[in-house]
Amino acid sequence: MKQEYTITVYTENQIGLLNRIAIIFTRRKINIDSLNTSPSEVDSVHRFTIVINETEEVVRKLCRQIEKQVEVLKAYYNTNDEILWQEMALYKVPTEIIAEKVKVERLLREYGARAVVIRKDYTVFETTGQREETEALIKALEPYGLIEFVRSARIAIIKESHGFHEKLKEFEQAQPGEDVAENEYLSKQAEVFTM
Amino acid sequence: MTTLEALEEKIETPVKKIISITGSEAVLEAMIAENVHTIFGYPGGAIMPIYDALYDYKDKLEHILVRHEQGGIHAAQGFARTSGKVGVVFATSGPGATNLVTGLADAMIDSTPLVAITGQVFAHLLGTDAFQETDVINITTPVTKWNYQVTDATEIPAVLAKAFYIARSGRPGPVLIDITKNAQIQKFDYEGYTSCHHIRSYRPKPIVRKEYITEAAKLINAAEKPFVIFGQGVILGRAENEFKAFIEKSGLPAAWTILGLSALPTDHPLNVGMLGMHGNYGPNVLTNECDVLIAVGMRFDDRVTGRLDKYAKQAKVIHLDIDPAEIDKNVKSTVPVWGDCKETLPLLTELLEKKDHSLWLQKFNEFTKKENELVIYDEMHPTKEEMSMAEVIDALNELTNGNAVIVTDVGQHQMIACRYAKFNESKSNVTSGGLGTMGFALPAAIGAKYGAPERTVIAIIGDGGFQMTLQELGTIMQFGAAVKILILNNQFLGMVRQWQELFNEKRYSFVDITSPDFVMVAKGYGIEGKSVNKRENLKAALKEMLDHDGAYLLEVMVGKENNVFPMVPQGCSVAEIRLS
Fold first, then answer.
1. Which residues, 6+ apart, have CB-to-CB distance to B296 below 8 Å?
2. Each residue of A75-111: pLDDT tens digit?
3. Which residue of chain B has the CA closest to A179?
4. Binning pLDDT at 50, 70 and 90, where does residue A44 land?
5. Which A residues in the span 29-58 are in contact with B, Cβ-Cβ below 8 Å?
């Protein structure tokens, strides 16, 4: 049975790795619903959070393929009840309508929205929550002239996880993480001899 | 440390005094430190600094100038397959690099250790659509085990050390390093080369779980009809002896995948033949009769399993593999045995009870007898005037005694050669298995000869495949690789024609291929050759080919519309194998 799975991948910070991970999905014609990259609790280790809708068998195989990549430390997959997850959404609405209609104000309070900016012409609100919550606010705001809407990728914490520090000690053995090489040549174009 | 690595010479260059060298020199120093002697390659604008440096390394590094980069990478593959070392290929940016893609894909799917070095435009030109600029890293990402773009010379020693380590360790594969021209030219303080043995995020070998070994041994000991199927993992893990000891301890019949061929001598009493679409009768039918199926270093390719939902459903499956992603990928295993089979097989053998499975083995022999009567005998002794491919291979066996390296291309001749060629030694079968790359054999044979210079290397190629890469005759001409080229010419793209005959009502759509006079083509390259179309001349011609000092091309005209049988038609179960 297909359902939503959140895949958490711990990786080295290397250019090109995003592509290596993404093509594992695209090659099998699997759509990525949401993808977030961020630092992790461990210095120099990055964390990908990927959401897809698939069967467990497919997800397990995908995780094995992801872990097979040289720069991937570990990949976990979880169902929605095994994680705590949040998405952030921004809504731009005309200020005059909000100012006039008391109903909108009540709406925003109801959904726990916070004003990020208030200008004469528009106001931007932010909410954080799960998909249904952010979606419900769009519906509610639509009649009041919603100008723009954007939602972030999912970020998730695995309930059972004890973090990656211990696991990393196992991985570290001898070699510490490497920094991405800063390249002086890319920023000194004019000084480089050309053919 | 993997076994592959353990056997490679330990190379630890002592830290010398710091010297200033160019990135190009650092590349070549890395080659020497990694014990590379032979490089296949083709120069071009973006890799010129490396070739300039190579000029001064001619006494330490042998460079074979191929005629096309695809030929270069296939040669590096052939080299890796017969030598067990990492194959190395150089190419320039843009078209040079894109011409490597087929070979990378081939090496990726057949787990061949390679390091490909490509030149790239200057770092500051990246992304400007510069002359001969191609996004090689992104093009090759799906077909490399690892790839990396170097834009600064100081990175070169460590990156190349990593490249060789990744290519040969764990499940081997191709690695591509793209080096921008500025990094090749740049001088930097070189502190010597340190080989790589550990990467934090990389687990080449999973930890062996003893409880699974015990469980697997229990299953095998209790089995009435155990059946072993093995692949290239045995060869890549250098575990041929461990494998032999394993099957001999309790007399387990063993069948091979096309890449497992030659890991176990053909005439070993427990070798029951080839698996898969054109494999032998017994191994296919009895896959669906065995009670315990033990898969060693193989990946259940669809050409081996046929219809998956009717594959060995009655059997408990034990799967030994170094790559955890292969376990349960296609066939669900009852007991997964993660690990290097060089380690896991002896542990398993130790727990096996000596058992007599001769009755079960007898069953395989009965099928062999039947296949002999219904297929093989006629193949070997055709009543038609036209020669069959099988009788050519049979005649060749008599002359080589199974001691030659056989390199095959893709198609009917490949299936026939793999079915009938005899092998005494491991690493003797070089073929494009997973990718099925036509045009592979000629360049791969050149590399195979450099990888095993003391051995006879015979490239068996069809008339179609030969025309895909025949420009490499020029490489043979210039560098004198003593490759024996045996063209089995049926004047058709035979395998596709066979399918069109069997499944498309003989609607022969573009399979009728004309060929040049191959002997004259060879002559043009200064290579001796002959063409035979009569049975009575076959043996003498084969002998002449083998006895000739140097490369030789022999064309044998064979039956135009012969089919390869047995055959498991696509979408059928292995038990539904057809004998005609």
1. B228, B229, B230, B231, B233, B234, B243, B246, B320, B341, B345
2. 999 999 999 999 999 999 998 887 777 677 787 888 8
3. B155
4. confident
5. none
The pTM (predicted TM-score) of the whole model is: 0.93
Phi, psi of B510 (to 5 degrees): 55, 45
CATH number for A84-151 (one of 3.30.70.1150, 3.40.50.300, 1.10.1040.10, 3.55.40.10): it is: 3.30.70.1150
Structure ipTM: 0.91
Are B94 and B42 a contacting pair, CB within 8 Å? no
CA distance B87 to B80: 5
Mean pLDDT of chain A: 86
Nearest Cα to A66, choosing from A24, A37, A36, A32? A24
- Cα end-to-end distance, chain B, whole Å: 49
SS3 letters across B232-274:
CHHHHCCCHHHHHHHHHHCCCCEEECCCCCCCCCCCCCCEEEE
SS3 B175: strand
Both structure tokens of A185:
């040549």
Judging contacts by C-beta atoms under 8 Å, the chain A residues touching residue B126 are 186
Q: Which long-range contacts (CB under 8 A, 24 or more apart) does B544-551 make?
A: B545/B484, B545/B486, B546/B399, B546/B400, B546/B456, B546/B484, B548/B484, B549/B482, B550/B480, B550/B482, B551/B476, B551/B480, B551/B481, B551/B482, B551/B483, B551/B484, B551/B485, B551/B527
Residue A61 contacts B where some CB pair is shorter than 8 Å: yes
Of A16, A65, A192, the CB nearest to B325: A65
What digits encode the pLDDT tens for the residues B220-270? 999 999 999 999 999 999 999 999 999 999 999 999 999 999 999 999 999
- Domains in chain B, ordered, with CATH? 3-190 (3.40.50.970), 210-364 (3.40.50.1220), 387-557 (3.40.50.970)
Distance CA B396, CA B19 (A): 55
pLDDT for residue B454 is more than 80: yes
The DSSP secondary-structure symbol of B89 reads: E
Residue length, chain B?
580
Residues of B with active-site annotation = 69, 131-132, 181, 495
Q: Burial of B463 by CB count in 10 Å (0-12 exposed, 13-18 middle, 19+ buried)?
A: buried
Contacts of B200 in chain A (CB under 8 A): 12, 73, 171-173, 175-177
Rounded distance between C-alpha atoms, residue B228 and residue B183, angstroms: 50
Most A CBs within 10 Å, among B200, B300, B328, B331, to test the A interface = B200
- Among B253, B455, B257, B502, CA closest to B367: B253
Instruction: Specify the CATH superfamily of domain A3-82+158-175.
Output: ACT domain (3.30.70.260)
H helix count then E strand count, chain A: 7, 9
- For residue B41 the two structure tokens come to 């390659």
Domain ranges of chain A: 3-82+158-175, 84-151
Q: State residue B337 phi and psi, 5-degree precision.
A: -115, 90
The answer to whether A126 touches A90, Cβ cutoff 8 Å, is yes
Torsional sign, CA B72, B77, B82, B87: positive
Count CB pairs under 8 A between chains A and B.
85
